[in-house]
Model the fold of this input.
Amino acid sequence: MPDNPIRFGPEEAKYCSYESCRVAVLPIPYEGTVSYGGGASKGPDAILNASLQLEAYDEELKRETSEIGIHTLPAVRPSKTPSDMMRATHEAALKPAKDNKFIVGLGGEHSVTKGVLTALVEVRGKDFGVLQLDAHADLRDSYDGTPDSHACIMRRVDDLGLQYSQVGIRSLSKEEADFVEEKGRKIHFAHEMRGGSAWMDEAIDGLPENIYITIDIDCFDPSIMPSTGTPEPGGLDWYTVTSFLRKVCKNKKVIGFDVVEFAPIEGMNAPDFLAAKLVSRLLGYIY
Ligand SMILES: [Mn+2]
Done:
């Protein structure tokens, strides 16, 4: 496998080849169906660049995360149409999935999650569920004329027949709310998550043993994460997200994750660093 000129991890971390890695980072710089603010195509490079500045030592986990063995794959080349992009992402994720590498997808808009998921389903079947952290329910059947819009990703997960749990949600349409009710499903809304942590166990209990985590960066509050296309007030803070993820990783086997919808703002470095540290911290919880 060819290398990416920029890699995930602190500058001083030792290089890890694809052959010997456990974790394969897959940048997917795509923004074909963005409906509001753009810039998600610049997300992966900004996260990789910020990761160079990470401290190799994780102060919470008391170890160096890069010891896990992290390799960064070349970016998936963006295609013109959403369906071509799904195919290209599927193809790019298929090899690491077959080679039993742990895939970390870096978006790019949220639709790219589907390409990674379909590759995982092709290799291992539907033996896993999906945990979504997001401001938006993303349950529309189609949006702007395509079923592969960023606004439809969890509906596609539903189509795939995978169990899923949705956390941090604070924006959805009437159509989506009706769909949730018809299905008898439960969404963990941000306004119901305040002032307690009972939602954590509920969200975890609703999932099978193996899970894939998809983190839309807009799950965070815009005050700490303004760098995203469709920000929503009332979002989660750093410690809510990380303590929840730590709990998830204790209780479930995480088989892959992605961080999507990160759209860097020039001259604003804190959100880039948040996204990079989130990836690193989550890898530390998993391994
Ligand atoms: Mn979202």
Q: What stands out?
A: The chain has one domain: 23-286.
